[in-house]
Amino acid sequence: MINQINSIVKEANAAFQIYQNVSGADKKIFLYSIAEELEISGEEICKTASEETNLPVVRFQGELARTCSQLRLFGDIAGEGSWVNAVIDTADEARKPLRKPDMRKMLIPLGPVVVFGASNFPLAYSTPGGDTASALAAGCPVIVKGHPAHPNTSQLTAEAIERAVEKCSLPKGIFQHITSSSFEVGKWLVQHPGVTGVGFTGSLQGGRSLHQYAQNREVPIPVFAEMGSVNPVVLFKHALLEKTPELAKMYASSITMGVGQFCTNPGILIGLKSSALNHFTSLLALELSLTNSYKMLHKGIYENYSNELDKILYEKGVETVFHAHEQENLKASAVLARVPAKEFLKNPNLKNEIFGPFSLIVVCDNIKELEEVWKSFPGQLTTSVIGTNQDIEIHQRLIKEATQFSGRIVYNSAPTGVEVSHATVHGGPFPATTDSRFTSVGGDAILRWVRPVCYQDCPEFMLAPELKNDNPLGIMRKINGLFSREAIK
Amino acid sequence: MINQINSIVKEANAAFQIYQNVSGADKKIFLYSIAEELEISGEEICKTASEETNLPVVRFQGELARTCSQLRLFGDIAGEGSWVNAVIDTADEARKPLRKPDMRKMLIPLGPVVVFGASNFPLAYSTPGGDTASALAAGCPVIVKGHPAHPNTSQLTAEAIERAVEKCSLPKGIFQHITSSSFEVGKWLVQHPGVTGVGFTGSLQGGRSLHQYAQNREVPIPVFAEMGSVNPVVLFKHALLEKTPELAKMYASSITMGVGQFCTNPGILIGLKSSALNHFTSLLALELSLTNSYKMLHKGIYENYSNELDKILYEKGVETVFHAHEQENLKASAVLARVPAKEFLKNPNLKNEIFGPFSLIVVCDNIKELEEVWKSFPGQLTTSVIGTNQDIEIHQRLIKEATQFSGRIVYNSAPTGVEVSHATVHGGPFPATTDSRFTSVGGDAILRWVRPVCYQDCPEFMLAPELKNDNPLGIMRKINGLFSREAIK
In this predicted model, what pLDDT tens digit does every residue of A314-367 receive, in sequence order? Predict the structure, then answer.
C-alpha cells in the first residue's frame, strides 16, 4: 500500500505542475463539468447513497443539488478570478533614500491536498464535496480517501469527477480516489512529504490525530479539520411566549434532521426557568414524539449514540423529558433531556457533542446563571439566538459574547442547513475546527489551499495575467492601497 | 513568575473585551500615536539600540523610520477599514424550497497575541515591530517577551507604546512587556490557555519549538514563526556579462548589510561555470575586502557564526574565495566560498542558513545541473533572479519553479531591504516560516490575527458598522458576490 501511496502522491505532484497554470476560465468549465457528470449519474448516486447510509433517497436529491451548486459556486469564483487577492504597489524611482520597487502579489495554490470526507454527508462534505471543490478551484490536485462507510457512493462520485477530468483534457493526477478503510493509510497520506494540505470532516479524535501528524512532520502542513460542536441555542422570554408552537416544530425538525447526524445539530438549548420554557419543553417533546425514527448511518455511529445516551442520561441532575425508546436495530431514539444550569456548570461531560437526535435543555434560575452557561462553551460552529428584537436589545451584551466562541451566529432559526454562499462561515475556534481563521463551506473555503507570493520588479512578460498592467482578466485588485479594476498605465 | 504570567494574560483578556470594540479610526490614532512617541524618544532609542547590538546609530535611524511608517501603514489600514473583508449575501424570501437567509461575515480579532521579537531588528521586527503593529491594528492585545539581547531598547520602545496607550485612554492590558531571558517563560506564554496567537521571528529551532508547544496545547493556536532562509540568487549569463562590477558591488553590500544578520541575506549565489562567473567572483571578493568589518549582535551569534564557518569551509568541495580573518573579538569576517554543484547537490549541510556575512557560490557545469540545484531548495523567504530580459525569457520555466518554494521573487536586486507595503510577502514555505499562507511584513500581516464570523439574519441594530446596510464606514464589501462600496437598500 505504501508503494501505491507513493505513486499516487507522485502523480498528484506531476499533475500540479500543469494544473497550477490552468486558467480560471478553464477551471470553471471543469468544475461545472463535474457538477454535470454528477447530475447525469444522479439517480444511481442517490440510490446508492441511500442504501449505504440508511437515509432516504429524497435527502440525497437535495444533497446532490447542494453539492452541484457548490461546485458551480467555486467554478464561478475561479472563473471571475478576483479571489487571488492581487495587490500591486507600483515603483517610485524618485523615492529617497532608496527607490521604491514594484511589488505585486497574488495567491497561488499550495500543491496536492488530501481530503477525508464525512460519513454523514457522502456528497456535500465528502468525495465531491466542499473540500474537493475548493481545492480544485484553487489549483490544487486532490487525493480523496473515500469514507469506508459509503464506499460505493464515493466510488460513483469519484468516477463522475474522473469523467470530467477526462472531458476537460486535464491530467489524471489532479483527482485520485483511494478506497481503503485503514487508518494507517490516512496517516501515511498526511505524513507524506509530497502532500501540502489536508481537509477533514469528522470526529474530534480523528481530526485532532491528523492535525498532530501534520504538525509533527519534518515540514508541517496546514490541516483544516472540522470536528463538530454542540451548537448552543439560547431561547429568550418574549420569543418563547410569542411563538412556542412554531419554535417547538422548528427545533424538533432541526434536532431530528438527518437522524441528528449533522455537525450543526442543536445539542444544547438554554433558557430561563419559566412557564414559557416549560411549555416549550412539553411542545418540543410532543413534536419529537410525532417525528418518525430512522436508522443511523452505520452500526458504529448507532452504538456510539446509544452509549453516549446511556452515560449522559445518568449524569447528576439530568432528567429525561422524552425518549422514543426504539427497539429496532440501528434506529435512533430521539431524546430530549433537561438539566439545571447549576449541574451543567459543574459537569464538563454535559458539553460533549452527542452525535444523534439528542438535545439537552439547560434551565437557568436567573440571567446571571444563563450568562455563566453561555460563557462556558468551547469553540462552536454555530450559536443561535431565539429572541424578539426586544429580547435581543435587552441581552445584546450577552449575545455579542458569542462571537468569541462561534463561527456563525444564527438569529431565530435552526443552525442546521448551512447556506453555501460567499458569506458563509463553517468554522470556529477549537474544538469546532483546528484553525478558526478558515471556513470549510462558502467561497472563502478556497483560502485554506493557497499562499501569497510577491514578485518584485518582475518583467511584465513574466507576470501572471492577474498581475499584468492591463488587467486582462478584469479582476478587482488593490493598487497602491486602492481597490480598482483599472489597468495600470 | 507563573503567577505574574497568569495575571498578565488575565489583564490582556480583560483589555480584549474593550479593545476588540474600538473603532478603526481610534486604532489609527493609537498606532500613529505609538509612532509619534517612538520618534519623540528616537534619539535615546537609537543610541541604546546601537549600544546593545554593536550596530551603528545611523542604521537605527533608518530602522526607526521604517518601524514608524510600518505602524502608520497599519494605522491607515485599520482606519480605512476594508481589511475586515466584509461579505454580505442578502436574503431571498421567495427562494424555493427554502428561503435564503441574510448572511454577513467579517474578520474579527482572535484575542491576546504573544510576540517574540528578533535579535537582529530590535525595532522593526521586535517590541514595536510588525507583529505588534499588525496585532494591535487587528484589535488584539499584545504581550511582548522582550528579546534578552536588547533589553533596554525593548524597554524604551515598550514605554513609548505604553505612553501612547495612556494618551489614547485605552486599557493598559492591550500592551504588556515582559522582561525575562528565560526560555521557560516563553514556553509558558505559548501554552497559556488565555493566549490565542503567537508571532515569532528568530531561529528555526526556536520557531519550531514554539510551534510544537502551540499545536500540542489542549486548544491549539496559530503560530507564525519566521525563521529565515538562505535566499538563493541565480545569476544568468547576459546580466553577468553586462554588469559585473555593479552586481559585485550590490551583492557585497547585501551580504555584509547589518553584518550579514538579515533573514533575507543572500547566502547562496548560483551560476553557470564561465569566465563571466569567475570575473564576478573575483570582483565580489574584492568588494568584500573593501567593506569594513563590524561586531556582531552578541557573543552567541558571533560564536555560532564562527563555528558554522569552521564547519562549512571544510565540507567536501568547498573552496574559500575570500576570508577577512578578523582577529578582534565579535567582529565578523566577511567570507565568500565556492563549491561545484555536484558537491552541493550531495551535501544537505550546504543548504543550511549561516547567520552572518557569508555567501556560497554554487558553480554549475551546465543548465541541467543548475536546474537541479534550483529545485533542491526547501522553503525560502526570497529567491532572486539576476538576468537581462533575454536571460529571463530563456530561463522562464526554471525561474517560475521558484514560486514553489519562495515567498518573494526578486528580479535584478538584492533580497535584503524588505519594502513594507500592501503587496509585501515576507513569508514562504517551511522552514522559512511555519505557515506559508501568511506574511509577517506588509498590510496582510494583519490576517494572521483574525478569524471570520458570520451573522445569519442578524437584526440591523446588532450589526457592526462594517456590516450595516448603509455602510457608514464606506468600506469596500462583497455584496452578493460583487465588490461595492454602495449601501444596501
Answer: 999 999 999 987 767 899 989 999 999 999 999 999 999 999 999 999 999 999
d(CA B62, CA B124): 10
Among A134, A224, A437, most B C-beta atoms within 10 A, so best to mutate, is A437
A423 chain-B contacts, CB cut-off 8 A: 87-89, 103-105, 454
Q: Has residue B82 been placed in a domain?
A: yes
Active site residues of B: 226, 263
Domain check: are A183 and A324 in the same one? no
What CATH number has the domain bearing residue A175?
3.40.605.10
| Number of helices and strands in chain A (H, E) | 15, 17
How many Å lie between the alpha carbon of B113 and the closest alpha carbon of chain A? 14
Domain shared by B94 and B214, yes or no:
yes
The domain of A165 spans 2-227+435-452
Q: What is the three-class DSSP state of A36?
A: helix
Residue A443 has pLDDT above 80, yes or no: yes
Do B18 and B168 meet the contact criterion of CB atoms below 8 Å apart?
no
Give the integer Cα–Cα distance in Å for A359 and A308. Answer: 12
| Residue B329, pLDDT above cutoff 90 | no
Smallest Cβ distance to B422: which of A379, A431, A481? Answer: A481
Q: Which of A202, A264, A204, A274 is nearest to A233 (CA)?
A: A264
What is the rounded (10 degree) CA torsion for B68, B72, B74, B79? 160
Size of interface A-B (CB pairs under 8 A): 202
Chain A positions in Cβ-Cβ contact with residue B448 (cut-off 8 Å)? 437
Q: In the predicted model, what is the mean pLDDT of chain A?
A: 96
3-state helix, strand, coil in chain B (%, to 5): 45, 20, 35
A419 located within any domain? no
User: In b/e form, how buried is each residue of B268-297, taking b as 16+ CB within 10 angstroms?
Assistant: bbbbbeeebbeebbebbbebbeebebbbbb
In a domain, B61, yes or no: yes
Distance from CA of B453 to the nearest CA of A (A): 5
Q: From the CA of A450, how many Å to the nearest CA of chain B?
A: 6
- In order of A364, A377, A400, B226, B316, the CA distances from A374 in angstroms are 11, 6, 11, 37, 64
Q: Does A404 touch chain B (CB under 8 A)?
A: yes
- A421/B216 touch (CB, cutoff 8 Å), yes or no: no
Same domain, B388 and B441: no
Q: Which residues are B362's β-sheet partners?
A: B270, B339
CA distance B358 to A145: 46
* Contact check, Cβ <8 Å, B408/A437: no
Angle at A108 between CA A103 and CA A111, to 5 degrees: 145
d(CA A18, CA B226): 30
Contact by Cβ (8 Å): B256, B291: yes
Same domain, B240 and B274: yes
Domain count along chain B: 2
- Cα–Cα distance, A453 to B424 (Å, whole number): 9
A403 touches chain B (CB under 8 A): yes
For residue A97, pLDDT over 90 is answered with no
Asked whether residue A298 falls in the same domain as residue A407, the answer is yes
